[in-house]
Amino acid sequence: MFSQCFTIWLPKAAMRPFGPDSSHSDCVLVVGVSRPKLAALFLSVMLLSLFLTFHILYDSAVYSIQAATAISENKISILTNHIPNPPAINQPVVFPNRIHFPKTSRRLPQCLIIGVRKCGTRALLEMLYLHPRIQKAAGEVHFFDRDENYLRGLEWYRKKMPHSFRGQITIEKSPSYFVTPEVPERVRAMNASIKLLLIVREPVTRAISDYTQLRSHAATATLPQQQSLSSTSPLSRSFEELALLPNGTVNEAYRPLAISQYHVHVHRWLEVFPREQLLVVNGDQLIDDPVSQLRRIEDFLGKLISAAPVLGRLCKYSVYVCVCVCVCEREKQSECPFVRFYSLAGLIATICTV
To answer: Is 147 within 8 Å of 87 (Cβ atoms)?
Structure first.
Protein backbone atom coordinates (compact mmCIF):
# COMPACT_ATOMS: atom_id res chain seq x y z
CA MET A 1 0.00 0.00 0.00
CA PHE A 2 2.78 2.37 0.87
CA SER A 3 5.80 3.27 -1.24
CA GLN A 4 8.87 1.19 -0.54
CA CYS A 5 12.26 2.85 -0.55
CA PHE A 6 15.35 0.73 -1.30
CA THR A 7 19.06 1.49 -1.21
CA ILE A 8 21.67 -0.34 -3.30
CA TRP A 9 25.46 -0.07 -3.17
CA LEU A 10 27.03 -0.86 -6.54
CA PRO A 11 30.71 -1.16 -7.28
CA LYS A 12 32.17 1.52 -9.45
CA ALA A 13 33.15 -0.98 -12.08
CA ALA A 14 29.50 -1.94 -12.64
CA MET A 15 28.53 1.62 -13.54
CA ARG A 16 29.29 3.36 -16.83
CA PRO A 17 31.19 6.52 -16.04
CA PHE A 18 29.69 9.79 -17.21
CA GLY A 19 32.97 11.61 -17.43
CA PRO A 20 36.63 11.37 -16.67
CA ASP A 21 36.10 12.64 -13.14
CA SER A 22 32.58 11.49 -12.36
CA SER A 23 33.30 9.98 -8.95
CA HIS A 24 36.13 9.48 -6.53
CA SER A 25 34.55 6.65 -4.52
CA ASP A 26 34.64 2.94 -5.09
CA CYS A 27 30.87 2.50 -4.73
CA VAL A 28 27.82 4.37 -5.94
CA LEU A 29 24.67 4.87 -3.82
CA VAL A 30 21.41 4.26 -5.68
CA VAL A 31 18.14 5.22 -3.99
CA GLY A 32 14.73 4.49 -5.46
CA VAL A 33 11.07 4.04 -4.60
CA SER A 34 8.63 1.43 -5.81
CA ARG A 35 5.86 4.04 -6.37
CA PRO A 36 7.44 7.33 -7.42
CA LYS A 37 4.13 9.12 -8.04
CA LEU A 38 2.85 8.38 -4.54
CA ALA A 39 6.18 9.37 -3.04
CA ALA A 40 6.16 12.64 -4.99
CA LEU A 41 2.63 13.36 -3.78
CA PHE A 42 3.61 12.64 -0.18
CA LEU A 43 6.65 14.90 -0.48
CA SER A 44 4.54 17.68 -2.00
CA VAL A 45 2.04 17.49 0.87
CA MET A 46 4.85 17.67 3.42
CA LEU A 47 6.41 20.69 1.72
CA LEU A 48 3.05 22.44 1.45
CA SER A 49 2.31 21.83 5.14
CA LEU A 50 5.73 23.13 6.09
CA PHE A 51 5.23 26.24 3.96
CA LEU A 52 1.81 26.99 5.47
CA THR A 53 3.14 26.53 8.99
CA PHE A 54 6.00 28.98 8.47
CA HIS A 55 3.64 31.38 6.70
CA ILE A 56 1.21 31.43 9.65
CA LEU A 57 4.01 31.88 12.17
CA TYR A 58 5.56 34.69 10.15
CA ASP A 59 2.23 36.43 9.63
CA SER A 60 1.37 36.23 13.33
CA ALA A 61 4.78 37.60 14.34
CA VAL A 62 4.51 40.53 11.92
CA TYR A 63 1.00 41.33 13.12
CA SER A 64 2.06 41.24 16.78
CA ILE A 65 4.94 43.63 16.10
CA GLN A 66 2.67 46.01 14.18
CA ALA A 67 0.02 45.91 16.91
CA ALA A 68 2.56 46.60 19.66
CA THR A 69 4.03 49.50 17.66
CA ALA A 70 0.63 51.04 16.95
CA ILE A 71 -0.51 50.79 20.57
CA SER A 72 2.77 52.27 21.82
CA GLU A 73 2.45 55.21 19.39
CA ASN A 74 -1.14 55.73 20.53
CA LYS A 75 -0.07 55.83 24.17
CA ILE A 76 2.79 58.27 23.41
CA SER A 77 0.46 60.62 21.54
CA ILE A 78 -1.94 60.62 24.48
CA LEU A 79 0.88 61.47 26.90
CA THR A 80 2.32 64.23 24.71
CA ASN A 81 -1.07 65.87 24.20
CA HIS A 82 -1.77 65.80 27.96
CA ILE A 83 -5.32 64.58 27.63
CA PRO A 84 -6.87 64.58 31.15
CA ASN A 85 -9.11 61.55 30.55
CA PRO A 86 -7.55 59.48 27.79
CA PRO A 87 -9.91 57.01 26.11
CA ALA A 88 -9.47 53.33 26.75
CA ILE A 89 -7.45 51.56 24.09
CA ASN A 90 -9.76 48.64 23.56
CA GLN A 91 -10.58 48.99 19.88
CA PRO A 92 -9.05 46.52 17.45
CA VAL A 93 -6.04 47.88 15.56
CA VAL A 94 -6.66 47.80 11.81
CA PHE A 95 -3.75 47.65 9.38
CA PRO A 96 -4.50 48.42 5.73
CA ASN A 97 -1.73 46.16 4.48
CA ARG A 98 -2.93 43.14 6.42
CA ILE A 99 -4.73 40.82 4.02
CA HIS A 100 -4.35 37.36 5.51
CA PHE A 101 -5.92 36.20 8.78
CA PRO A 102 -8.08 39.24 9.70
CA LYS A 103 -8.26 40.08 13.40
CA THR A 104 -10.86 38.32 15.51
CA SER A 105 -12.49 39.51 18.69
CA ARG A 106 -14.65 38.18 21.50
CA ARG A 107 -18.28 39.21 21.17
CA LEU A 108 -21.31 38.79 23.39
CA PRO A 109 -23.61 36.02 22.10
CA GLN A 110 -26.28 36.93 19.58
CA CYS A 111 -28.13 33.66 20.23
CA LEU A 112 -28.71 31.56 23.35
CA ILE A 113 -29.73 27.93 23.75
CA ILE A 114 -31.72 28.31 26.97
CA GLY A 115 -32.75 24.67 27.46
CA VAL A 116 -34.16 22.26 28.17
CA ARG A 117 -31.93 19.96 30.19
CA LYS A 118 -31.73 16.36 28.86
CA CYS A 119 -33.41 17.35 25.58
CA GLY A 120 -30.35 17.40 23.33
CA THR A 121 -28.91 20.87 23.93
CA ARG A 122 -25.35 19.65 23.46
CA ALA A 123 -26.15 17.79 20.24
CA LEU A 124 -27.98 20.86 18.90
CA LEU A 125 -25.05 23.14 19.69
CA GLU A 126 -22.56 20.83 18.01
CA MET A 127 -24.74 20.56 14.91
CA LEU A 128 -25.01 24.34 14.68
CA TYR A 129 -21.25 24.64 15.16
CA LEU A 130 -20.77 22.87 11.82
CA HIS A 131 -22.04 26.05 10.16
CA PRO A 132 -19.13 28.28 9.05
CA ARG A 133 -20.88 31.41 10.34
CA ILE A 134 -21.38 30.08 13.90
CA GLN A 135 -18.99 30.02 16.84
CA LYS A 136 -19.83 28.38 20.16
CA ALA A 137 -18.84 29.09 23.74
CA ALA A 138 -16.80 26.32 25.34
CA GLY A 139 -18.87 24.65 28.04
CA GLU A 140 -21.79 26.11 29.97
CA VAL A 141 -20.93 29.58 31.26
CA HIS A 142 -23.92 29.97 33.65
CA PHE A 143 -23.65 33.75 33.57
CA PHE A 144 -27.32 34.70 33.91
CA ASP A 145 -28.45 32.03 36.39
CA ARG A 146 -25.64 32.25 38.96
CA ASP A 147 -25.39 35.43 40.99
CA GLU A 148 -21.66 35.09 41.60
CA ASN A 149 -21.06 35.07 37.84
CA TYR A 150 -23.61 37.74 36.98
CA LEU A 151 -22.10 40.17 39.47
CA ARG A 152 -18.79 39.95 37.61
CA GLY A 153 -20.32 41.92 34.75
CA LEU A 154 -20.69 41.65 31.00
CA GLU A 155 -16.96 42.11 30.41
CA TRP A 156 -16.28 38.87 32.31
CA TYR A 157 -19.01 37.19 30.27
CA ARG A 158 -17.58 38.49 27.00
CA LYS A 159 -14.14 37.09 27.84
CA LYS A 160 -15.74 33.65 28.15
CA MET A 161 -16.84 33.81 24.53
CA PRO A 162 -14.70 32.44 21.67
CA HIS A 163 -12.88 34.58 19.15
CA SER A 164 -14.93 35.14 16.01
CA PHE A 165 -14.53 36.92 12.68
CA ARG A 166 -16.72 39.74 11.50
CA GLY A 167 -19.90 38.19 10.09
CA GLN A 168 -19.90 35.23 12.49
CA ILE A 169 -22.29 34.87 15.41
CA THR A 170 -21.63 33.42 18.84
CA ILE A 171 -23.98 30.95 20.54
CA GLU A 172 -23.86 30.05 24.23
CA LYS A 173 -25.70 27.17 25.89
CA SER A 174 -26.76 26.81 29.52
CA PRO A 175 -29.90 24.67 29.99
CA SER A 176 -30.56 26.03 33.47
CA TYR A 177 -31.40 29.43 31.96
CA PHE A 178 -34.84 28.10 31.04
CA VAL A 179 -35.98 27.35 34.60
CA THR A 180 -34.29 30.19 36.51
CA PRO A 181 -36.83 32.99 37.18
CA GLU A 182 -34.47 35.98 37.00
CA VAL A 183 -32.73 34.98 33.75
CA PRO A 184 -35.17 36.46 31.16
CA GLU A 185 -34.86 40.00 32.54
CA ARG A 186 -31.08 39.70 32.77
CA VAL A 187 -30.83 38.50 29.17
CA ARG A 188 -33.00 41.37 27.93
CA ALA A 189 -30.82 43.84 29.81
CA MET A 190 -27.86 42.58 27.78
CA ASN A 191 -29.57 42.35 24.36
CA ALA A 192 -33.30 42.92 23.83
CA SER A 193 -33.15 41.55 20.25
CA ILE A 194 -31.28 38.33 21.03
CA LYS A 195 -32.40 35.07 19.42
CA LEU A 196 -33.49 32.27 21.77
CA LEU A 197 -33.45 28.54 20.97
CA LEU A 198 -35.46 26.14 23.14
CA ILE A 199 -35.19 22.42 22.45
CA VAL A 200 -37.79 20.14 24.06
CA ARG A 201 -38.78 16.51 23.93
CA GLU A 202 -41.60 14.35 25.26
CA PRO A 203 -41.82 15.58 28.90
CA VAL A 204 -42.17 12.20 30.62
CA THR A 205 -39.23 10.75 28.71
CA ARG A 206 -37.21 13.84 29.58
CA ALA A 207 -38.07 13.49 33.29
CA ILE A 208 -37.03 9.82 33.35
CA SER A 209 -33.76 10.68 31.60
CA ASP A 210 -33.16 13.43 34.15
CA TYR A 211 -33.87 11.02 37.00
CA THR A 212 -31.47 8.46 35.53
CA GLN A 213 -28.66 10.99 35.30
CA LEU A 214 -29.25 12.28 38.83
CA ARG A 215 -29.22 8.75 40.16
CA SER A 216 -26.05 7.92 38.25
CA HIS A 217 -24.28 11.01 39.61
CA ALA A 218 -25.44 10.25 43.13
CA ALA A 219 -24.17 6.68 42.83
CA THR A 220 -20.70 7.82 41.80
CA ALA A 221 -20.57 10.50 44.51
CA THR A 222 -21.74 8.24 47.38
CA LEU A 223 -19.54 5.66 49.05
CA PRO A 224 -20.80 2.04 49.07
CA GLN A 225 -21.02 1.94 52.89
CA GLN A 226 -23.08 5.13 52.85
CA GLN A 227 -25.48 3.64 50.33
CA SER A 228 -26.21 0.67 52.55
CA LEU A 229 -26.95 2.88 55.55
CA SER A 230 -29.29 5.33 53.79
CA SER A 231 -32.22 3.18 52.70
CA THR A 232 -34.55 6.19 52.48
CA SER A 233 -32.25 8.32 50.29
CA PRO A 234 -33.44 9.29 46.78
CA LEU A 235 -30.71 7.02 45.42
CA SER A 236 -32.57 3.94 46.63
CA ARG A 237 -36.04 5.08 45.49
CA SER A 238 -37.55 4.41 42.08
CA PHE A 239 -38.81 7.08 39.73
CA GLU A 240 -42.43 6.20 40.51
CA GLU A 241 -41.82 6.61 44.25
CA LEU A 242 -40.34 10.07 43.70
CA ALA A 243 -42.81 11.23 41.07
CA LEU A 244 -45.98 10.19 42.90
CA LEU A 245 -47.14 11.24 46.36
CA PRO A 246 -48.61 8.68 48.80
CA ASN A 247 -52.15 9.80 47.86
CA GLY A 248 -51.46 9.03 44.19
CA THR A 249 -51.13 12.61 42.93
CA VAL A 250 -48.16 13.85 40.92
CA ASN A 251 -45.31 15.34 42.93
CA GLU A 252 -44.87 18.56 40.98
CA ALA A 253 -42.18 19.72 43.39
CA TYR A 254 -39.86 16.89 42.27
CA ARG A 255 -37.27 18.72 40.19
CA PRO A 256 -37.26 16.42 37.09
CA LEU A 257 -41.03 16.84 36.87
CA ALA A 258 -40.89 20.57 37.60
CA ILE A 259 -38.50 21.09 34.69
CA SER A 260 -40.78 19.08 32.37
CA GLN A 261 -43.65 21.52 32.96
CA TYR A 262 -42.61 23.54 29.95
CA HIS A 263 -45.61 25.87 29.91
CA VAL A 264 -44.73 27.34 33.31
CA HIS A 265 -41.26 28.42 32.24
CA VAL A 266 -42.16 29.39 28.66
CA HIS A 267 -44.79 31.78 29.98
CA ARG A 268 -42.12 33.59 32.00
CA TRP A 269 -39.92 34.03 28.92
CA LEU A 270 -42.79 35.25 26.73
CA GLU A 271 -43.58 37.94 29.28
CA VAL A 272 -40.16 39.44 28.51
CA PHE A 273 -39.47 38.55 24.85
CA PRO A 274 -41.77 38.58 21.83
CA ARG A 275 -42.79 35.24 20.38
CA GLU A 276 -40.82 35.77 17.15
CA GLN A 277 -37.54 35.79 19.09
CA LEU A 278 -38.09 32.32 20.56
CA LEU A 279 -37.85 29.18 18.43
CA VAL A 280 -38.97 25.85 19.88
CA VAL A 281 -37.00 22.91 18.45
CA ASN A 282 -38.40 19.39 18.61
CA GLY A 283 -35.65 17.28 20.17
CA ASP A 284 -37.26 14.00 19.11
CA GLN A 285 -37.46 15.12 15.48
CA LEU A 286 -33.89 16.40 15.69
CA ILE A 287 -32.83 12.76 16.08
CA ASP A 288 -35.22 11.26 13.53
CA ASP A 289 -35.14 14.06 10.95
CA PRO A 290 -32.39 16.59 11.76
CA VAL A 291 -32.49 18.29 8.35
CA SER A 292 -36.00 19.72 8.79
CA GLN A 293 -35.23 21.10 12.24
CA LEU A 294 -31.92 22.62 11.16
CA ARG A 295 -33.55 24.32 8.20
CA ARG A 296 -36.06 25.87 10.60
CA ILE A 297 -33.17 27.17 12.70
CA GLU A 298 -31.46 28.61 9.62
CA ASP A 299 -34.65 30.47 8.70
CA PHE A 300 -35.01 31.65 12.29
CA LEU A 301 -31.47 33.01 12.53
CA GLY A 302 -31.95 34.69 9.15
CA LYS A 303 -29.52 37.52 8.48
CA LEU A 304 -27.28 36.48 11.37
CA ILE A 305 -26.00 33.65 9.14
CA SER A 306 -26.51 35.16 5.71
CA ALA A 307 -24.16 32.66 4.04
CA ALA A 308 -25.44 29.92 1.77
CA PRO A 309 -27.32 27.30 3.81
CA VAL A 310 -25.26 24.26 4.70
CA LEU A 311 -27.06 22.90 7.74
CA GLY A 312 -29.70 21.39 5.49
CA ARG A 313 -27.07 18.90 4.32
CA LEU A 314 -26.44 17.55 7.81
CA CYS A 315 -26.81 13.80 7.94
CA LYS A 316 -28.79 11.80 10.42
CA TYR A 317 -26.82 10.37 13.32
CA SER A 318 -27.37 7.23 15.33
CA VAL A 319 -27.07 7.53 19.12
CA TYR A 320 -24.75 5.04 20.81
CA VAL A 321 -23.99 3.41 17.46
CA CYS A 322 -21.13 4.75 15.39
CA VAL A 323 -23.01 4.45 12.10
CA CYS A 324 -24.04 7.42 9.98
CA VAL A 325 -27.07 7.20 7.71
CA CYS A 326 -27.15 9.79 4.97
CA VAL A 327 -30.39 11.74 4.59
CA CYS A 328 -29.37 13.88 1.62
CA GLU A 329 -31.07 13.88 -1.75
CA ARG A 330 -29.33 10.61 -2.52
CA GLU A 331 -30.94 7.70 -0.73
CA LYS A 332 -28.11 5.19 -0.41
CA GLN A 333 -25.32 5.88 2.01
CA SER A 334 -22.75 4.44 -0.38
CA GLU A 335 -23.69 7.11 -2.95
CA CYS A 336 -23.41 10.04 -0.54
CA PRO A 337 -19.88 11.45 -0.29
CA PHE A 338 -18.82 12.54 3.19
CA VAL A 339 -16.50 15.48 3.75
CA ARG A 340 -16.53 15.94 7.52
CA PHE A 341 -17.21 13.81 10.57
CA TYR A 342 -18.13 14.83 14.10
CA SER A 343 -18.04 12.34 16.98
CA LEU A 344 -19.50 13.00 20.43
CA ALA A 345 -20.31 10.37 23.09
CA GLY A 346 -20.87 7.61 20.59
CA LEU A 347 -22.80 9.59 17.99
CA ILE A 348 -21.62 10.79 14.61
CA ALA A 349 -22.90 13.68 12.56
CA THR A 350 -21.80 14.03 8.97
CA ILE A 351 -22.09 16.70 6.30
CA CYS A 352 -22.77 15.62 2.74
CA THR A 353 -21.40 17.30 -0.34
CA VAL A 354 -24.60 16.91 -2.36
So the answer is: no
